[in-house]
Design brief:
The chain has one domain: Rossmann fold (3-Layer(aba) Sandwich), CATH 3.40.50. The chain contains 9 helices and 10 strands. The strands form 2 sheets. A 6-stranded mixed beta sheet has the order 6-7-8-3-9-10, sandwiched between helices. Strands 2-1-4-5 form a 4-stranded antiparallel beta sheet, with helices on one face. Helix 3 runs parallel beside helix 6. By secondary structure, it is of the alpha/beta class. The structure holds adenosine-5'-triphosphate and magnesium ion. Magnesium ion binds next to helix 1.
C-alpha cells in the first residue's frame, strides 16, 4: 500500500495570467488520503488560489505538485476528473435556464465523457445526491429560481455526483443557516467515511464549524499568499497565528 500523500506541494509559487508576481508563495503541503483539512485566512490571503493550484487551474511557476502520485503538469486533466471542486461563487442570473437536475448531472461529465448520454444509473445518482442535500423537490426547477442557500446545496450535490476521491469546497457554508451547516458537515463526514475521501474546505473563519471541530483533522492558516500555520485543531487553536487572526477579525 502506498503511503505517499494524495496531495503534495513542495516550494510552490503560482501566478495568475497577466500578473507579474506570484499570488501564493513557497507553499509546502502534504495531505494524506482520508484527511479532512480546513483552510482558513482573511480575504485575499490566497485560499481559493491554493485550491486552484492543486487542480491545475492556476499555474505553478516554481516547485513541485503531485496529486494521486501523479505530476500535475503532465496529468492535469486526469487529476481534475477525480477532484470535485465546488466554486466559491457562481453568478447565476434569475433567468438562468439550466434545471437543477442538469446542473447536478454536470458533475457526471468527467465520468461520462463528451457526447455520451447519461444512463439510467447516472440519473438515479443525481436524484440520490439531491435527496442527500434535501433538494430533490426542486429537481426540475431552473437553478436561477432558487435561493442562494438552495443553490449552494445544489452545487454541493453536483460535487457529490462526481464521486471523486478528493472534494475541494470553497466557502461551502457561506449562504447556509446553522441547521444547514450542520447537515452539510454530516454529509461530508458520511462521504469521507464511505469513500475514504480527502476533503479540503476553505472558509474565512472556524466559526462555521466550531460546533463540530472534532471532525476536522487539520487546520491550515493562510496569510498574504503563504501558509503561516498547519497543524491539528488543538495546535492551531492555541497558536499565536490563530489568536492573531481572531483578534484582527473582531
Ligand atoms: N484571476 C485573477 N487574476 C489576478 N489576480 C487574482 C485573480 N483571482 C484572484 N486574484 C488575486 O489573488 C489574491 C488571492 O485571491 P484569492 O481569491 O486566492 O483569495 P481568498 O483567500 O480566496 O480570498 P476570499 O476570502 O476573499 O475568497 C487576491 O489579491 C486577488 O486579488
Ligand atoms: Mg476565495
Amino acid at each position: 500500500m502506498s503511503i505517499s500523500p494524495i496531495i503534495f506541494l513542495k516550494n510552490v509559487d503560482s501566478i495568475y495570467e497577466g500578473e507579474s508576481r506570484p499570488t501564493i508563495k513557497d507553499i509546502n503541503l502534504k495531505i494524506r488520503r482520508g484527511e479532512f483539512v480546513y483552510i482558513i485566512g482573511p480575504n485575499a490571503s490566497g485560499k481559493t488560489t491554493l485550491l486552484e493550484t492543486i487542480n491545475g487551474l492556476v499555474r505553478a511557476i516554481r516547485g513541485q505538485i503531485r496529486v494521486f502520485g501523479l505530476d500535475l503538469k503532465k496529468n492535469s486533466q486526469k487529476i481534475r476528473k477525480n477532484i470535485a471542486y465546488m466554486l466559491q461563487t457562481w453568478d447565476i442570473e434569475p433567468d438562468e435556464p439550466f434545471l437543477v437536475k442538469d446542473i447536478v448531472m454536470m458533475g457526471r461529465s468527467g465520468k461520462l465523457g463528451t457526447f455520451i448520454n447519461p444512463r439510467k444509473q447516472d440519473w438515479e445518482l443525481v436524484k440520490d445526491c439531491l435527496e442527500i442535500v434535501g433538494m430533490l423537490r426542486h429537481y426540475k426547477k431552473p437553478i436561477g429560481k432558487l435561493s442562494g442557500g438552495e443553490q449552494q446545496k445544489v452545487f454541493l450535490a453536483r460535487a457529490l455526483a462526481q464521486d471523486a476521491d478528493i472534494l475541494m469546497l470553497d466557502e461551502p457554508f457561506s449562504n447556509l443557516d446553522t441547521d444547514s451547516r450542520s447537515m452539510v458537515l454530516d454529509i461530508l463526514r458520511n462521504y469521507k467515511q464511505r469513500k475514504n475521501a480527502t476533503i479540503l474546505v476553505v472558509s474565512h473563519f472556524l466559526s462555521d464549524v466550531s460546533f463540530q471541530i472534532d471532525f476536522i483533522d487539520r487546520i491550515v492558516i493562510m496569510q498574504e499568499g503563504r501558509i503561516i500555520m498547519d497543524g491539528s485543531p488543538d495546535e492551531v487553536l492555541q497558536s499565536e497565528e490563530y489568536i492573531c487572526l481572531k483578534t484582527n477579525r473582531s
